[in-house]
Here is the input.
Amino acid sequence: MSEPMPVVKGTLDLLVLKALSWAPMHGFEVTTWIEERSAGALGFDDSAVYQALYRMEKRGLIEAAWGVTENNRKARYYGLAPEGREHLAAETARLLRFAETVTGILTAAEARPA
Amino acid sequence: MIRPGIRRLFRLPVRRGAPVAADLDDEIRLHLELRAEQLEKRGMPAAAARAEALRRFGAMDEARGGLYRAAQRREWSMRAREWLETVGQDARYALRTLRSNPGFAAVAVLTLALGVGANTAFFSVIDGVLLRPLPFREAERLVVVWETDRHSGTTREPAAWPDYLDFARRSTTVRDMAVLLGMEVNLTPATGEPARLSAVASSAGYFGLVGVRPLLGRGFTPEEDRPGGARTVVLGEAFWRARFRGDPGVIGRTIRLDDKAYTVVGVVPAGADVGVDQIHEQAAYHAPYTGAGDVDVWVPLQAGEADYPRDTHPFFIVGRLAPGAGVEAAQAELGRIGAEVERTYPSNDGRGVHVEALERVVFGPVRPALLVLWGAVALVLLVACVNVANLLLARGAARAREVAVRTAVGAGLDRLGRQFLVESVVLALLGGLAGIALAWALLRALLVLAPADVPRLGEVGLDGRVLAMTLAVSLAVGIAFGLVPLAQARWVDVARTLRSEGGRGATGGRARRRVRQALVVAELALSVALVVGAGLLIRSFWTVLRSDPGFRAEGVLKAQFELPQSRYPQDFKVWPAWKEVHALHATVLERARALPGVRSAALAAVHPLDAGFTNSWSVVGREAESGDWPEISVRQVTPGYFPTLGIRLLRGRLLEESDDAAAPGVGVINETAAKRFFAGRDPLGQVIQIWGRVRWRIVGVIADERIHGVTEAAPPALYLPFAQAPGASGVLLVRTAGDPARLANPLRRAIWAVDPGLAVYGVEPLQATLVASVAQRRFTMLVLGAFAAVALLLALVGVHGVLSYTVSQRGAEMGIRMALGATRRDVVALVLRGGIGLALLGTALGIVAALAGTRLLASLLYGVGTLDPLTFLAVPAAVLAAAALASWLPARRATKADPVVALRAE
Here is the structure.
């Protein structure tokens, strides 16, 4: 397997938000969700996920509550707040646009635009 | 999984400190456990799984530290947001409540605005005038070194030049000294009219001594400060901006002062002249300096012993205390030095030294008045607060039902308490805002009315400090009020309130009414005290206005000028034969008399409200006795002076045209001089000697002129004919048939027709000068009167409010009474009795307070005692009458209550 790519803070925030957009999760669930979707291609410390969660909770993008896991263990669950949903949509669109633009330049068959 | 309904509880209660750390650790622990389990499921041994879980988490210490900080920030942020939201909710609710009760809101906000606004306006005056430090370096170390005269009993005399040199050389407690003298000079600009400038001649060290740094250029050098030194001038900032438009190129230019060319070497900032006015004003010897306003120009003193020998006392000494020395030490040392000088030089007989802090000289005169007024303003605020408290109490009773319901439903008392607090703060802040607007208007009015001699009044404004204080006062008031409804809420008996129909059981009936009545009585007492104080001041002012100044000012116009040496040589060696001066005087008088409407005209060296100068004197044949006499005021006048000003002749004759330079020297004395120095003998025919060799035979005695101001007794005075004793300064006084102000321009033109280069100033009806001289008294009276009126109005509103409320609460009772046969008149009488009872109690308490308090006004009164019976009787009578009126309105309303309706509602 190739070397895992480092993740920019802002992008990790988006990934966390995306995870939470499916359902409320606790920190470990968010971490494994990202790992599975990225097939391990992204490299980041587990604590970075919690940093992102705390940061975004402070900003009001996500909300938190204590709950219990299936095994009756106490866990802190995070859910997406309306502002978070908006932020996710807007930032995702921006990121995709950015990637598209850069990709377009790098894969250009011609030296000049068509 | 997540518990159902967890959405609703998604907002966690905020936790701090240890719980944050504990929660964080729980979260981390769970994560590590789950990770380790995941890895074990994939086949890793337990220990390795745990290690790998740790590794994947990141450097634990660092990571945990970072997470802990992030968690703390998170908690803080959420706590703040929650708090803001609650307070915001409460505030919005409060505004809604106020909007639904516009009457209450309007009255409360206006009342608070009055109290807070008046205080803000006044505080900015106090701050700008008294509290701000003088613009000098370590101003508290500056002192004025006066001389004293044992014979005349004065303690604030200017000093002699050689005395100053001795003091400066010998004193160790006063490290530095400088000398100044205020005066007036003519400015003859290249274009435009000549103007009269206020000037100060100072020794070279003055600016450095007080700590003034020039805005441009420099001060004076010691070389310039010598007799015959270069003619240099330093401009005052206001003058520089007005005349030279703030041009920095003014350095090096020349201006003509008194027809001589002076080179500008510097500009000093506004405020460099602080104290000059007050020093001159408080000096027993009045230099020819009218003061009031910025000093326009400064010139070097250039004094020397030849021109200013030890027996003349023209200058004021300012000094800086040596480090560690106090005013008392300086007084002791300089008193001793003064005594030594007195022993050494016979000319200094009776002269001593008096050292006074400069700050006291500047602020002393206004401090008592300002503090009294501030006390009044604080009382007004108190009355306003009491009124609003009453309003809140009344409203609280009306809201008892709401409080009961909310308490029953489970709102904790501190939730309610917080809400009431926010309500009160919102009310208070609204009042504060309105108060600031009111303060701005009040300040405009204050600055217009204020007398000119209040120091630094021009710099007073609503600055940051003042606004911050207003905010603080509003908040304090709001919080204090917030406690009122809270206390009330405690009193509410929930069960009884909910059960009874109109929430009537909740009023706490008697107790609450008593509290409100007590508050109203307190308000009345405070207002009565204020009104008594104002009444005393009004009576004083009226007495002052009615007192006889000794001359008749109505119908008289004055115009002042000073003759420059260049065109009107004033050589003391040939005095009084000053040809040009006499010629000008004669021509000016002739032209003035020729103006239409002029009944008589006269010239004098100074006008009747200018104390002029004094001189030591003796009576021929009584020289030994005269040695102990105080100096006499010398007034140089033309014969027309007495008829023009309506001064009565008591004995002998007035001065006449025939008393000219060729005739023997004559003079008239005033009644004070006659009584004091010629008691039991005839002054007529006695000969007075002043200025060494000159003699004057007394030919008449005239009534006193109050030259020191209407409220001061007239000093002994000697009137000499202008023709025999000319002076360089002149005051033209004309009595007119009609309004003197209309002659102002014709009079100016008449003088300019004789000499266009003369600066003519001070042209105003003498009546205006008279009124201006009592300006401070008038100001204090008007302000205190306004405050007293406001306080009384608020108190009466309070009386009205309490009685209205009582009437509305006791509507049923009134109805029953009338049904049982009471007439309308009986009901009115019942309510009126209540109101008048309150008023009597309040007035009585107010009188007691006034009896104790008017002592504070003693220094401001004139012709009226602090316990003046007329005021102490009139005020309560007036207040009672007003209170009766305020009670009558609700009383009338009580009779309108339809008994049937009232009974049914019960």
About this structure: The longest strand of chain A covers residues 62-68. The helical segments of chain A are 9-22, 27-38, 46-59, 82-106.
